[in-house]
Amino acid sequence: MVSAPPPLILNVDDTDAARYAKTRILQRAGLRVIEAGSGTEALEKVQNESPDLVLLDTKLPDINGFEVCRQLKQDPHTSMVLVLQTSASYLASPDKVRALDSGADNYLFEPIEPEELVANVRALLRLGRVERELRDMDRRKDEFLAILAHELRNPLGPIRNAVELLRSLDPHASPAQENARRVILRQTDHMVRLVDDLLDVSRISQGKIALRRAPVELCALLRSTVETAEPNMASRQHLLTVQLPDHDIWIDGDSVRLAQVVGNLLNNAAKFTAPGGRIALTACLEDQDAVIRVTDNGIGIDPEQAASIFDLFAQAGHSPDRVQDGLGIGLSLVRTLVKLHGGDVQAHSAGEGKGATFEVRLPTQAGTPQADATDCGTAKPAARPTDAYRILVVDDNVDSAEIVSALLQFAGHEVHMANDGASAIEAALRLQPDVIFLDIGLPDMSGVEVAETMRRNPQLAKTVLVALTGYGQDKDRMGAMAAGFNHHLTKPVNMETLNDTVRTFMRP
Question: Which cellular components does GO assign to this protein (predicted)?
Fold first, then answer.
C-alpha cells in the first residue's frame, strides 16, 4: 500500500533568514515545504501547487498578509486552504482580531518557538482533515438523496396510473373499493410530496436552487396561491381571511419560487392549526419592503424553539388531531428562497397554544407606491365570487367528504361538511345551503330519509339536493328522485362533473 505524501506547506516571508528558519523547522517535522517571498507569488503558488496550509507573514513587500489572506478566503477555489498568519511587527490584540476577521485560521506573534510552530501547524492540519472528511460525507449524502428521490419517483407514476385505470375499467365499484382506491391515491400523492422534499433538500445542500427572475406583481401572485391552498384549508374547515392592498406591489423575483414560499407557509399554518381554526394572510408595504404575514391560532411555538424553527428537518410538535407528517423541510426551504430574493423571514409566537405569525420581507421594485399607513390592516374574509354558492357535503366516509369538499372549495364555493343524517339536517337548517351533495348510505338513517325530511321543511324549499352515492342502478336513481332529490350522481365524480351540476341547477 502506497502511503499518502506528507502535507504540503507554503511558507511565505520576504525575509530570507526567517523564511529559511521556518522551512527547516517544518521539514524536520516531516512536512513538505515550498516557499514564496511576496504576496503576489504566494497567490500564484496557492493556485498552482494547492498547498494544505499557508504559513503567512503579515509584512510583505507588495501585498500585506491581511490582504493575501482575504483574497485566498474569498476565492472559491482557495477558500478551504488553511492560513496560519504570523507577525513580528503587528503584535497588538487588534492586529490579531484583524487577521482572524480576514479569514486566518490562527495568528501567532513572532518570535515563535519551534515546538509551538509545529504544534500549531499540526493542529490546523488535523482540523482541516476533519473538515474535508465532513465535506466529503456531506457530498455523498447529497448524492444519495438525489439518487433516492429519483428512484422513489419511478414507481409512483405507474402506481397512480394503475389506480386511475382501475377506476376507468370499473366506474361503478362499491364504496369500499372506491375508498381503497382513494387511500392509494392519497398516500401516493403524499409520497410524491415527500420525494419532492428530498429533492429540495439535495438542491439546498448543493446550492443548486437558481431563481428565474422577472417582475412579479405580488398581490396577483398571492391571490393565485390562495386558490391553490384553499382545498387544504377547506378539508380541515379552517377560516382563511385575506387582506391585500388595492395597489400593485412589484417584486424582482421568481414567481414559481415565491408562490412556493407562501404556499409552504399556508400549508404549515393549516398543518399546525386544529380543525375550525383561523388563518390570516396579509400583505402590505413597510419602508419600501413588501411584507407578507401568515397568522394562525394554532399550537404556537415554544420560545426556546423559535430560533431553530427554520432549520432543516426541524419539527416543533403537531396539531393534536394529526400525526406528525412531512420531513421538516418546508420552513427551511422558505428561508432559503426568501434569502435568495434578498429578503428575510421570521417567526413570532407568544408561546405554546397561542398561535404563530410568519413574516416575510422582500425588497420592492421601482414603480411600487410609497407605503400607506392603511396598507397593513386587519385581514378580512375573502369575498365570495358572484357564481359561488353555499354547499353542504354529507358523507359518512370522511375521506370522500373531504375530497369532494376540497374540489368544490377550489372552485370558489363556501363548503361545509356533515357525516351523518342528523347532523346533516341540523346543518342544512342552520346554513340554508344552495346545494347539498348527499350520500345515500349513512350510519343513522338513509340519505333518502334525510332528503324526505329536508323536503318537508319550507326553509329548504329552494335548496338543490344531489344524491352522491355508490349505488348507480336505475332503481336507485328512481328512488332518489321520488324522495325529492333534484339529481343523482354515482361515485366517483371529478371536479368538472361537480361544477357542471352546480352550474346547471343554479343557473337563473
Answer: plasma membrane
Which CATH architecture describes the domain 214-315+328-363? 2-Layer Sandwich (3.30)
Fold of 8-112: Rossmann fold (3.40.50)
Q: Is the pLDDT of residue 381 over 50?
A: no
Q: What is the largest CA-CA distance in the chain?
A: 109
Identical fold, 8-112 and 390-506: yes
Query: Measuring CA to CA, which residue among 218, 219, 226 is closest to residue 412?
Result: 226
Judge contact between 491 and 441, C-beta under 8 A.
Answer: no
- Among candidate residues 7, 29, 27, the one with its CA nearest the CA of residue 81: 7
Q: C-alpha grid cell for residue 425?
A: 339536517
| Angle at CA of residue 271, ends 265 and 420, nearest 5° | 135
> What are 125-152's pLDDT values in tens digits?
999 888 888 888 877 776 676 666 656 6
Whole-model pTM: value is 0.46
CB 356 within 8 A of CB 300: yes
Distance (Å, whole) CA 136 – CA 203:
16
Q: Which fold does the domain 390-506 belong to in CATH?
A: Rossmann fold (3.40.50)
Pairing of strands 289-296, 278-286: antiparallel
In whole angstroms, what separates CA 212 from the centre of its chain?
18
Residue ranges covered by each domain of the chain:
8-112, 140-206, 214-315+328-363, 390-506
Over residues 171-184, the mean pLDDT reads 81
Euclidean distance between CA atoms 471 and 173, whole angstroms:
9
Q: What pLDDT is recorded for position 41?
A: 94
Of 108-122, 146-160, 271-285, 331-345, where does mean pLDDT reach its minimum? 146-160
